[in-house]
Amino acid sequence: MTVTQPTGLGHLRLFPADTAPPLTSSLNYGPGQTRANNVVVPLNGLGRLGVFVGQGAGSVHVIIDTSGYFQQE
C-alpha cells in the first residue's frame, strides 16, 4: 500500500472488513510524504478489506495494490 499527497500527519490501519480496526498502524506518514509499505492482511468472508485513516484533518490519497494471495483448501 502507498499513501501520497497527505495534507497532515496520519496513519493507516488495514483489517478485514466488518471487524474492529487493530490498535497498531500499517503505515505512518507526514504532510507531503509519499510512503509505501508491504502488508499481509486477511480479508473477511466476502473478500473485503477495511481501511481506517487516522488523520485529524485534510486529505490523503491511498493506493492498494495486490501482488499475491493465500488460499485455504
Structural write-up:
The chain is an all-beta fold and 73 residues long. It has one domain. It contains no helices and six strands. The chain has strands spanning 2-4, 10-16, 27-29, 35-36, 49-55, 61-63. The strands form two sheets. A three-stranded antiparallel β-sheet has the order 4-1-6, with no helix packed on it. The model has no long low-confidence stretch (mean pLDDT 94).
Which secondary-structure class do the elements indicate?
Answer: mainly beta
What best-fitting shape do the alpha-carbon axes yield?
Answer: globular
Termini separation comes to 27 Å
The description of the largest β-sheet is: 3 strands, antiparallel
* Biggest sheet, spatial arrangement of strands: 4-1-6
- How many β-strands, per DSSP? 6
Calculate Rg over CA atoms.
13 Å
Averaged pLDDT: 94
- In helices, the fraction of residues equals under 10%
Order of helices and strands: EEEEEE
Give the low-pLDDT segments.
none
Q: How many alpha or pi helices?
A: 0
β-sheet strand percentage? 25-35%
**Oligomeric state as shown:** single chain
Count of the separate structural domains: 1
